[in-house]
## 1
Amino acid sequence: MKNRLNELREILRRERMGAFIFPSTDPHNGEYVPAHWQGREWISGFTGSAGTAVVTLHKAALWTDSRYFIQAEEQLRDSEFLLMRMGMDETPSVAQWIAQELDATGMTEVGVDGMVITENTAKELAADLRKAGGYTLRTNLDPLKLIWRDRPQMPMSPVVIHPLKFAGIPAREKLQQVRRALAAQHADGMLLTRLDDIAWLLNIRGKDVPCIPVVLSYLLIASDRATLFVDSRKLSDEVKAYLMSEGVATDEYANVVASLQSYKDYNILMDADEVNHTLYGKVKCQVICGKSPVAAMKAVKNEAEIDGFRRAMLRDGVALMKFTNWLKKGLKEHKDDTKPIMIDGEVVTEMTVCRKLEQFRSEQPLYQGVSFDTIAGYASHGAIVHYEPTEKTDVPLMPKGFLLIDSGAQYLDGTTDVTRTIPLGQLTDEERLVYTLVLKGHIDLQLLKFPDGAAGTQLDVVARRALWEQGYNYLHGTGHGVGAYLSVHEGPHQIRMEYRGAPLHEGMTVTDEPGVYLEGRFGVRIENTLLTRRYITPLEQRGETLSPTKRFLEFETLTLCPIDTEPILWELLTAEERSWLDNYNRHVEETLAPYL
Amino acid sequence: MKNRLNELREILRRERMGAFIFPSTDPHNGEYVPAHWQGREWISGFTGSAGTAVVTLHKAALWTDSRYFIQAEEQLRDSEFLLMRMGMDETPSVAQWIAQELDATGMTEVGVDGMVITENTAKELAADLRKAGGYTLRTNLDPLKLIWRDRPQMPMSPVVIHPLKFAGIPAREKLQQVRRALAAQHADGMLLTRLDDIAWLLNIRGKDVPCIPVVLSYLLIASDRATLFVDSRKLSDEVKAYLMSEGVATDEYANVVASLQSYKDYNILMDADEVNHTLYGKVKCQVICGKSPVAAMKAVKNEAEIDGFRRAMLRDGVALMKFTNWLKKGLKEHKDDTKPIMIDGEVVTEMTVCRKLEQFRSEQPLYQGVSFDTIAGYASHGAIVHYEPTEKTDVPLMPKGFLLIDSGAQYLDGTTDVTRTIPLGQLTDEERLVYTLVLKGHIDLQLLKFPDGAAGTQLDVVARRALWEQGYNYLHGTGHGVGAYLSVHEGPHQIRMEYRGAPLHEGMTVTDEPGVYLEGRFGVRIENTLLTRRYITPLEQRGETLSPTKRFLEFETLTLCPIDTEPILWELLTAEERSWLDNYNRHVEETLAPYL
């Protein structure tokens, strides 16, 4: 590690740079970063998903958020990296710290690889550095190319065609839709860099990124052609022929730069929140800085995708039910809450739970893997929002308190995301209260009817109201979109306190996952994946015309997994909430019964 | 009217302008425009509060929104003004229409008086004109100065000192607060042009604008001095001495221009959403374009202001109760729903109601006038959101259906705003249903507990949920701030569907006014004015520390006016809603009883 810093500093000296910044992102600004771009981890040793490392000639520091404070402390202990705890009052920003460190050195240049930050992030960073003391940002150097000798190769999984029976709409039609949307923004073309957007648009899938079935690539859409930039070794003749037939040419991944430089249309749309800084600067034509239209199109699921979701949820439900039955068998036999739960002669731990759940899911047809790393947190671990058990943190389950399991799977016909909080035995009054309040919010959101086009920010309070009344709250969002055999976290719509303007329309998937996290004690979260659908109001049922709102929406619950009623304080639920819960659990049971 | 247009066109020809635009605003961007600046009305004949007139050499057009379509049609019928219905698909924007009209003329310059539009509006307009065909906006000419010969004088009411017992905090302290806020934005000074902000800051009041007790003035705050620009004839020696003692010099109203030109500090903050275009362009120093800090300070009421509100609400409640008793007396005697209600031998009409209500209010101590024009809409008039009865529209009340009354008063110690929907006799099923749903939303919002700092947009759905479920909705906001003997509509916080980021904090007034409007049939709105206060959660009551949210808020209801229970479909109310309503009506009765 010391050597790595020394070699980096040699380059800094040679290039007369005062500091170099390593963000956690890659050229495609995705949620999961392939090993090839995990340079921040390589230089710092910190493995968390979010963090920024900065190295000057004499110091090094790493910024991360509260989720990772403990992990970062441990991982940085024997390094020269200082831990910068984001969100604390005394913590300087990256630009402030750099300015302070470079103040006496006379150095004025700071480096970052422009390929791994978005145009907008680079702009903000450059402005912050300028303000902090006139420092300039240089973006055309990637020192890792020189010093990271055993740098992992770029991922190399074959491209597969996503069958039309699952995708629903041919790629050429989607491309036409995109071109129409671009025309409405007076754009002749666009550069698409988000991997899940490209996979959705072309009906292709791959295994280049963990948990998300995408292909490392860029897509350049011009008025008269479209080119997919992808390592040609990933393309079979069949896939090449398929792409050609959909009107998509192919070129090598790295050639995107040259193609942008020689792009000849009058203008091009690039979404500065998505496209990386280096590619953003390559075109010579006029750049229209707008929102990419693709995310909003992908968010509205077509009939084939919706059918796929329903089938995937059914299989996922069967796996979840088998898992629950397996776990409950163990619970029945262990009532002594001083001894761990054992099943088939083995102690059950958080990691056992993850393995067992994956096993039941993997037995289901069309299973392709998990859609994110399973969160299985027992007791106080349930209060760590992004907890994943490791060999080091794993604990045996005792027959008392809550086990929080947030998990999901990728199937060829759909992606799942579900959280249940399972009582393992004796519960405290507060555990029962919190469980009931979270459940109330969860149900209330599912019961809500709302105007077509409402933004998630407007609806969010419905899931929080019961918690707020008692003094509880949670800081994460209440819901996110879910991809159709794509990323489990999809936008642009979200349900959250922070303002997101993206409207909800018919046919969108969205999760409903309120929670409460009491540090050192326990956590509760209950999550279903929902689908927005047309709501026929009583007014319409009476044959009257709606005014001033023209269309209302409601939620259909896609997830099929019973919600445990044992912890509920029934007197806190309204008749309507109770009736929803009864109906839901009965519906799940009846639907899954034939398959168990 | 024809003459006015001819004279204007002569000026346009002389100045080589293709068109002139008359907006509805004045130099202070206020809600009510003094007669002196009602140039749009003078040139077009249209008297509505919102509209834009445009005159070219050969045509004239007026843009207004759906509230005023019918009125504008009537008022423009015999003029050459075309009515441009805003919000309709086929209606061109002002810039589009001008571009189309000037296309063949070779004229490229369009005029507007820069004193009567804000900097941001002028910027947008200039950009729209540029885009529509390269037209340029000229802002330094006010043709009304030449052609409006009987133009009303500027308002000339004396400035009065708002007593400290009502204002709570001395002006010099408020000025210090503002200077601290400016320093935090790295600004040396600011130009304040909003009349209610100036009146609040300096603890002065006047009668220069209808319904809002403010003084026509500008306030220039520099690091070492503050100057109020106001017609010196309005200032008594006492007021001058008072201002001096608070650290405020005075100068003539028109001298603000010269003072800005010679402003010597390093920079100045100007809020481009408030300051007019002409003044914005006068300073020669650096302009910091930020949000004025004054509105957010004014929004948080101090103890004296809160006490004042409570006293004003009590007196307002007594007046409302006397009015209701007067009306109910008439109702008791008239059960034949084919004959109008008569009281003391006279037919009761909408205008009678307005007069009577004002009379009861005017008998209360400290009464200063209405806080907005009373809305009293019987039956289908209740469905017109901004209806004000006139001689032409006035109708007698019949003993059936709803009378919607939205009214408010200015008292020296507070401003009131209250809406009640009063059943006058037989009601239809739908009238009862809608009344109950609106009431549910109204109560649910008052019952809500929420984190300190939440934005109104997040809370809005709580007032709409019951309506949405049945297919009803309303397009206006759910709530706005209310001034302390100032404007009845105050920001920056609001409760509405459209996103407004301004946070709610302890000590803010806000209305709660959901409604439903069924065109041609009836309207229901129920409104109380609320106060945000600290909410001690059950967790805190149990002695536990809150996490992650540090403070919660709840609403205290300030308005004291019973809510009619006759129309309620009780089975649609929850036990909690019923209990709130019972308690509220009992509380109102007990509080007002000693004064009746």
Note: The interface with chain B takes residues 448-451, 454-455, 457-462, 465, 468-475, 497, 499, 501, 518-519, 537-540, 544, 546-549, 552, 574 of chain A (CB under 8 Å).
## 2
Amino acid sequence: MTSDGAYEPKPEHKFSFGLWTLGNRGRDPFGDAVRPTLPPVEIVAMLAEVGAWGVNLHDNDLVPIDANGAERDRIVREFKKACSENGIVVPMATVSLFYDPVFRDGAFTANDPEVRAYALQKTMQAMDLGAELGANIFVLWGGREGVETDACRRADDAIKRLREAVNFLCEYNIDQGYGYKFALEAKPNEPRADIYMATTGHYLGFIPTLAHPEMVGVNPEWEAGKLFHIDLNDQMPGRYDQDLRFGSANLKSAFWLVKFLEDVGYQGPRHFDAHAYRTENHEGVKDFARGCMRTYLLLKQKAAQWNADREIQAILQEVSRPTPETPCIANYSSQGSRALLAHAFNRASIAKKRLPYERLDQLTVDILVGAR
Amino acid sequence: MTSDGAYEPKPEHKFSFGLWTLGNRGRDPFGDAVRPTLPPVEIVAMLAEVGAWGVNLHDNDLVPIDANGAERDRIVREFKKACSENGIVVPMATVSLFYDPVFRDGAFTANDPEVRAYALQKTMQAMDLGAELGANIFVLWGGREGVETDACRRADDAIKRLREAVNFLCEYNIDQGYGYKFALEAKPNEPRADIYMATTGHYLGFIPTLAHPEMVGVNPEWEAGKLFHIDLNDQMPGRYDQDLRFGSANLKSAFWLVKFLEDVGYQGPRHFDAHAYRTENHEGVKDFARGCMRTYLLLKQKAAQWNADREIQAILQEVSRPTPETPCIANYSSQGSRALLAHAFNRASIAKKRLPYERLDQLTVDILVGAR
Amino acid sequence: MTSDGAYEPKPEHKFSFGLWTLGNRGRDPFGDAVRPTLPPVEIVAMLAEVGAWGVNLHDNDLVPIDANGAERDRIVREFKKACSENGIVVPMATVSLFYDPVFRDGAFTANDPEVRAYALQKTMQAMDLGAELGANIFVLWGGREGVETDACRRADDAIKRLREAVNFLCEYNIDQGYGYKFALEAKPNEPRADIYMATTGHYLGFIPTLAHPEMVGVNPEWEAGKLFHIDLNDQMPGRYDQDLRFGSANLKSAFWLVKFLEDVGYQGPRHFDAHAYRTENHEGVKDFARGCMRTYLLLKQKAAQWNADREIQAILQEVSRPTPETPCIANYSSQGSRALLAHAFNRASIAKKRLPYERLDQLTVDILVGAR
Amino acid sequence: MTSDGAYEPKPEHKFSFGLWTLGNRGRDPFGDAVRPTLPPVEIVAMLAEVGAWGVNLHDNDLVPIDANGAERDRIVREFKKACSENGIVVPMATVSLFYDPVFRDGAFTANDPEVRAYALQKTMQAMDLGAELGANIFVLWGGREGVETDACRRADDAIKRLREAVNFLCEYNIDQGYGYKFALEAKPNEPRADIYMATTGHYLGFIPTLAHPEMVGVNPEWEAGKLFHIDLNDQMPGRYDQDLRFGSANLKSAFWLVKFLEDVGYQGPRHFDAHAYRTENHEGVKDFARGCMRTYLLLKQKAAQWNADREIQAILQEVSRPTPETPCIANYSSQGSRALLAHAFNRASIAKKRLPYERLDQLTVDILVGAR
């Protein structure tokens, strides 16, 4: 990358990566791992080298699923030391409820009651781990909460089980005084054939039915004051789950996303949930991580330019300007409603008002490519 | 169709069609209309002929957008007479906020304040119309509530406008004593490039932020007690909005849907939001309508057979059976939580429990094709 | 399954499975293997048990990539013995050019010339292996022939490399007298972000540019006399590569496919390239295999019923009937062309001819569900 | 737009638009036309105003389907005059075989023999028209050549009919001495539920089966020397047919496309098959047209910069470098084949060679956003 300082990552940018992202070994459904295992403490050092601020983790990214208590404690101690020495924080923790075969039919929604109990136990232990490392966001991704055939259970039963599990975990959070915010993460149709909570919208509908809705948000979401965490990556549509370098598939979508986060003053971590191409070695993994952060900063600068562009702002103002005679609809009243019903609108003339969105969008393209 | 009585539609099945479905003229983005206009009163007669129970409508399916008051009253009078003579009811009404050019930038979320006011006025008048015809469900489909470029407005502003509009309409509903339930209908990515409320999940998240959430539900939805209306049709995935004859693209998905509606005791209308192929004339439109209802009834019978199948039920029971020693997770307590943390799970043996879902799904296929 | 003999698999049905299908261990991008390894000789016995006719294989399904010559020979000897004892044939062989990290940037199209040479060598050895086992179809799937970024090579260069490789292998086929037909297999967008030959159509365009086009066909294809092999499975659209039990996602699509194969008198193997759900153990794998074959036979019977249905055949005949005055367009001549230009067509009356396809399709549904 | 001359369209860029693109009235499946009709002669003037070079047309974009001979001749005369006065050429012509209801079941593949004959006649007349206007490319888009249900005809029969039709038209081309190149245009799944020739690959496989394959190519295609025409626009994946302003949905894909056309020295027209947002009036249509051309020229300049970038070129050279001992595979010989089989490859060391594609792709991003 060029050495222009404006695009160098700094702690105030709150750029974080998961252990599973830099540590990704490039295995896929048709191919073996292409990179050797990176121990967590080495990933922490690598994050410091490329200029990141934080590291996130699933329980088993750090502690093997069958480690005993003494092993677990040693591993955690060494990891905390590495974080401290490298100036890396742990903003978020999560739990793997998808990798082990025990979860092949789901975790919180599995038919087998023993699996459901074990999934809760494992999550509680992962919450303990995250709290010990200083995390205050806990992400839940229900990767196995779905089916291959609707024959095996009714969807409404499954969602009841999910609700009970999240309620249980909120109580544990209170009981232990951990102060976590939970962020529920949706992902459509992989790895199960049909996933119950396929979109963030589904979770936004689910949260108000919980016992402690104020404690639970989503990853990610826009308007409802519920954006507790965000995963940044990229994806070519209609493909499997690619997790490409941020901005590498669609620069313009990435631009609108960065602009949104900066416009609303998002204060949380900018977490990259992505991984390097399978063609890369560990040097290439660093290129990948640097590229994620650099593209974010390039787009952040362009968002500021867009907001400051006079022609753009003039268009936006013009298309939203009210006319003096437009009936007020801000608050309902019987009288106002009668006035609205009585008002004669000139539909044809309204339909002719100019809305120069092609121009607006081309100005955006010009800014994006540096031609303005 | 064969004349087997079990699959003949009857009023208790509550099969309804929209005026726009039987009246669809087969226009598409690349082709002209292929069928002549059917006047609403003739559609009502056709519905009676094929054995349907109800008819639904957008305001402008019945009353042209520029009809004056006298014309409007005459049209409504004749339509009520036709419904009454043919024994057809009007369970649902809705409003077109998408066809006229005035809505080219949205209706409730448009940038132009005058468009937003006009959209409210038009909806109030459509509510008046529906109430006069006896409807108690009012559907809102935000077909134009979206953008071609994110440059033209911020998504969070748009959703605020949408919320204010629905709140306003709820007040009007109360004020007029109409007793409507509102059903919000999602549809992804058509006709705008990006639609704000692309899934039912998005609406389920939106509803709790309203002033009168109890008055507002979705079309369609499963578990949250919010299923106020349902549209039945079919679709080949990854295509434009096809609205094919119910069950004609994927019989098995249609089966699970019918089974769900019957299992939960859904009491509302079975509304077919579909239309005949462009190759059909009006005789073919009747074939289309008969086929929708017949396939529903065929699948309803198969759902009953599935529920009564001993092998299927035995499998379902077996896969969900608890073991005596599984810790109880039904309600949270500190003590129960400690017991759960202390419990030693045998992960390997749990992972080996048999889950014969291939067999279960093949039994479903056997029932579907009549081989069982 | 019910014991009705008509739907029991027999050798004349030519049902085959890949070693990788019954042997699939249920690993996915987010989860570990759920079933123990099945040795190839046990898979052969299992195939005999469920009534299959043939077994297909990649080189490394049978012989590990780093086996030496003596190991290879012993493995092949034992496998041939198992096939012979169980009455199972090997109709098709193929080569893995996707699993080993050496192919992470492609095989025949890789940038590294050494990878391209190695890929050829490995394929020649797999051809030797298949010939020894009696296969006469050799499938090539270019799973890694693609890119994550177009920056790394030009697509036209890649396709030139692919052409040279296939030409080379055809020469080897001639030189060794193996008598193989090559079947090129397309698969869109997985595992690479963009795959060069994403559809069968791409391969049909590619084949005529080869040195020996008569030796090369596709897997699968319909009209061009090039259907050398077929993979049967199922898939919910818009998902990752699911390889579900045949007919389990969309019965109607499966029906049209079976009908097509039977109508054209396809003589090749009916090969199931699918695998059991991750929830299954080895008993469930047998359920899966039996279900694939049973559904094929159920649909084959329904295809015969469809072809024999008088109402269906009458509709088909009626919609295709010529009128005596229609100009003949069978062969071009200047005179005929002038006559055609001079003919006055009555567009409006042609557009009114009835095409009762809704009825035709509903009759198909009735046959499929056993209601006719 | 800024007035920087480098990005102003000039005749040598060969930018063309269809009458149907600037003349698009913004009708869609859910909405009425939003812009008044633009007469063809005014579109020609508008094209001259924005700096385009050519105009393309369907027969009925210019001549109404039921115009008589005298009307047709007058319209053509006036149009030629407008083209000549405005310095606009007609590089390509095509025929509408999709709009009129007569084609509701297909044109060349329709079941009704009279429709097939009429489709040929109409195409011959459109070829006459195009030849009179100076076009030397004739595009065929089979928009209706498909089905809603496979019940209505066999796909192999349909493709036979299509082949006969194209053969017939090639003979007419020869007979009349028109010198056309035919370009076959694919488009997946719209407006029919399933279209026979859904991809360019399908057409590339179809062309070699024709009587005059040298006369027929595709629109568009890359490597086979068959790129006779190209349509430029943009599209958000997984949506209906959007035809957005070139480069407005995915700048990076547009960049690779422009780079490819310039790298291979494509000499044909750069034809924009797109249209303005429904929110635009005729001034906005000009913005749209200017934006298409400007973005093409911006990306063309960036492609030149990419090709001249030393770091990029060094990486490309390095990753493709052969080693001296790699066996030669350029041409097959029995001896070379034995040498290849005997060569010992070091798989592990090959798999470790660095392929810095993340870096390469990020350099591309840097160039695209103007940060390099």
Note: The first helix of chain B runs from residue 19 to 22.
